[in-house]
UniProtKB/TrEMBL annotation:
Organism: Streptomyces lunalinharesii
Cellular compartments annotated: Cell membrane
Function noted in UniProt: Catalyzes the irreversible transfer of a propylamine group from the amino donor S-adenosylmethioninamine (decarboxy-AdoMet) to putrescine (1,4-diaminobutane) to yield spermidine.
Protein name: Polyamine aminopropyltransferase
Disordered: annotated segments: 483-512, 553-573
Pathway this chain belongs to: Amine and polyamine biosynthesis; spermidine biosynthesis; spermidine from putrescine: step 1/1
Residue runs in coiled coils: none
Binding site for S-methyl-5'-thioadenosine: 269, 360, 394-395
Gene it is expressed from: speE
Matches recorded under HAMAP family: Spermidine_synth
Length: 573
């Protein structure tokens, strides 16, 4: 019998390179702990990238439910693809992991800046959002198979135990990253710098693991190639941090068309104020219109959506406040939202008003309304009036607490003004729900009126008539009405913009639009008894109840649609 050739025996018994014991500078127990620490850091960074994409996409595109679904779906799919692709790198797991982490640090760290640049200079960021979700997902998916190989090279153990250790470190890291993003990175560093810092941490963790712990297993060429790649990526991330401020200013100017006077990321939203530098000219001296030669009008943006324009807000707030105030007693008034002080300004013009309570979730908006020269001139220093009381809090939670105050319900209100963001925005859906209106109705007097800003009645007819149906579902009679004032292309994002065109001389409200245009503000007046549209003397002359429009002008099916509830929101469909 002839024995097989010796080389074949040796080759058959030689363990694969991916499973040869690593030559470590530390004992294997400590080496295993360091690999798990790297898993922890990489998992935390990976979740930060994911949350960063969701947050920025929700801000730039809107509708956070849709954007979160897009990001998570594409990213999870891409993680599976990355895990399959990583099988080809297991033979050189250390080098492969080092390259993956360097590329991930660059792509993930720069994703926020790239998305913002696409939005600011190209007008859309959906394609970039999908591309970054796929790219980051592939790179994150490649991590675990490579780390599994590395930890087995440090100390062999059964596959089940190794997987359990890796996923435990991965999940704990995800917890830390998920908490660090909203409570540390976003408030302290902002979206752009926070992503870049996360990329730098990710890069350093990967480089330390590969170049130091597994450095003895690298060839000189591979070692220097990884060093060069990591130095290049770190330099790019540091350059991004240094330029984040000027970049953000340039991007804001591209988005808003003018330099931002105020740009703050509060605990609730991004607040941007442009134009209207203050004084009698900058904000039109509270007249609601800029004067010739006064420069750009004052504009307040919240999370990228135009909320206030000094050229148009007077018509909006007169249409919102006037019918509710002219319809009956109005000594006690509640404003839900309205932190800019402009609804309060209109209310204080009625001498019989004894108290105005404003419930605003963002104290920074109220601070600006009090202290900014332009905005405080526009609201005529409404918050300095002793009749006005400001409450900081979520309107829904505040209304719930009023019915539980030691068993005593506070005195009801004659008028409630709901000056909240459009219902088509995900964060606002609960503020247009059946539950919310049920709580609001409890706060009305027997003859009290509730007025709601309900979105554009033509551009988003389904949303508008869902608000009407939801109000009716809590036992209130409704009277919907509209006034010209929105852009025909409202769906692009501005909340309270005015269609371009000349204004009639001496009129404080918006210019009239073509009768077939979609540029309208829509409101709903509600009460326990059928309300009447009593128009104040200075209300916009174009204010029209929708019930008197000729047949066929509005989609009839939406008038009798189902209400929106917390468990079945109907505004985002």
């Amino acid at each position: 019998m002839i024995d097989p050739p010796e080389p074949l025996v040796v080759g058959a018994l030689r363990p694969p390179e991916a499973l040869t014991p690593a030559r470590l500078p530390v004992p294997s127990g400590l080496g295993r702990l360091l690999v798990l620490a790297a898993v922890f850091v990489c998992a935390a960074c990976g979740l930060v990238y994911e949350l960063e994409l969701v947050a920025l996409a929700s801000y730039l595109i809107g509708d956070s439910v849709t954007q979160a679904s897009v990001v998570l779906s594409f990213m999870v799919f891409a993680m599976g693809v990355g895990a399959l692709l990583a099988k080809r790198l297991r033979c050189r797991a250390a080098v492969g992991f080092g390259v993956v982490e360097a590329v991930l640090a660059l792509v993930g760290g720069g994703s926020a800046m790239a998305l913002y640049a696409c939005f600011a200079w190209f007008g859309q960021s959906r394609i970039a959002l999908v591309a970054f979700s796929l790219g980051i997902g592939v790179l994150i998916g490649a991590e675990i198979p490579l780390l599994m190989t590395l930890i087995q090279r440090v100390r062999r153990q059964d596959a089940g135990g190794a997987v359990a250790d890796l996923f435990a470190a991965d999940y704990v890291g995800a917890l830390v990253g998920g908490l660090a993003f909203p409570f540390l990175l976003l408030p302290c560093l902002g979206q752009l710098t926070g992503a870049l810092v996360t990329g730098a941490v990710n890069l350093l963790a990967g480089a330390a693991l590969v170049l130091w712990l597994f450095g003895r297993d690298l060839t000189p060429r591979a070692r220097w190639a990884l060093v060069g790649l990591n130095v290049l990526v770190l330099a790019l991330l540091l350059a991004g941090m240094a330029l984040a401020g000027p970049f953000e200013q340039a991007a804001r100017r591209a988005v808003y068309g003018a330099p931002a006077r105020v740009a703050e990321q509060t605990g609730v939203q991004e607040v941007v104020l442009i134009g209207g530098a203050g004084g009698p000219h900058g904000a039109g001296a509270g007249s609601g219109r800029g004067r010739k030669g006064s420069g750009s009008p004052l504009e307040l943006f919240l999370d990228g959506r135009l909320k206030v324009s000094s050229e148009t807000e007077r018509g909006y707030h007169q249409a919102l406040v006037g019918p509710a105030m002219a319809g009956g007693p109005h000594a006690r008034v509640l404003v839900l939202g309205g932190g800019d002080g402009l609804a309060a300004r209109e209310l204080l013009r009625y001498r019989s008003v004894r108290s105005v309570t404003v419930v605003e979730i963002d104290p920074e908006v109220v601070r600006l309304a009090r202290t900014d020269p332009g905005l405080s001139a526009l609201n005529r220093h409404a918050f300095a009036d002793p009749r006005v009381r400001v409450v900081t809090g979520d309107a829904f939670d505040w209304l719930r607490r009023q019915g539980r105050s030691g068993g005593r319900r506070p005195a009801p209100y004659d008028v409630i003004v709901s000056d909240l963001p459009d219902p088509g925005i995900t964060a606002s859906t609960k503020l247009y729900s059946q539950e919310f209106y049920g709580l609001t109705a409890r706060m009305l007097t027997g003859g009290g009126r509730l007025v709601v800003h309900a979105g554009p009645p033509r551009a988003r007819a389904a949303t508008f008539w869902t608000v009407v149906a939801t109000l009716r579902s809590v036992g209130l009679d409704t009277l919907p009405y509209r006034v010209p004032g929105r852009r025909p292309d409202f769906s692009g994002g501005p909340d309270r913009a005015l269609a371009p065109g000349p204004r009639p001389d001496g009129a404080g409200g918006p210019a009239a639009l073509p009768s077939d245009g979609a540029g309208y503000w829509g409101f709903v007046l509600a009460a326990r008894r059928p309300p009447r549209l009593v128009v104040a003397p200075d209300a916009p002359s174009t204010l029209v109840p929708l019930s008197v429009l000729r047949a066929g002008r509005l989609p009839q099916p939406h008038r009798s649609g189902p209400p929106s509830t917390l468990m079945h929101p109907r505004y985002l469909q």
